[in-house]
Design brief:
Blueprint (H helix, E strand, L loop, with lengths): L11 H15 L10 E5 L3 H14 L13 E3 L3 E2 L7 E2 L6 E13 L2 E12 L6 E2 L2 H15 L4
Antiparallel strand pairs: 1-6, 2-5, 3-5, 4-7, 5-6
Amino acid sequence: MRIYGVGRAPPPILGFVCMVLFGACAGGVSSQSRIIKSWDVPGEPEEVFEAAVEALEFMAFPVGRPSRASGVIRTGWRVMDHSQGWAECGAGQELSRGRLVMRFGRGVNGTRVTVEPRLETADEEPCLTTGALERRLHRLILDALRDVPG
């Protein structure tokens, strides 16, 4: 085992490891403010799209007039309560609002749904998603699909 003392440089890999370890901590919330979540939902894209619109409306996200042809839903901003555990914000900050972009396409097992949350504090500082929002949305979409007469 070598001990690196004065006048001896550590191997390059050690510098890389330190950069990764300390860079991840120093980067803060803003470096990873948008995490994409994807999953396959059993069903045709059109019915999954409609179920997603229903789920978003249930969660009080403004959906406007989503275009099924584009395969994308962009919600408007929604006021959010930090106590729901949907995001982790910087020190002393709380989640204030959020919006989503959802994309729909063919998946391996049905329709591939991709959710890109944008979550912010009142000062418009980005927050990290915990994944709880995406899991809730996924469950609501599956519930809406079960309620569709078939």
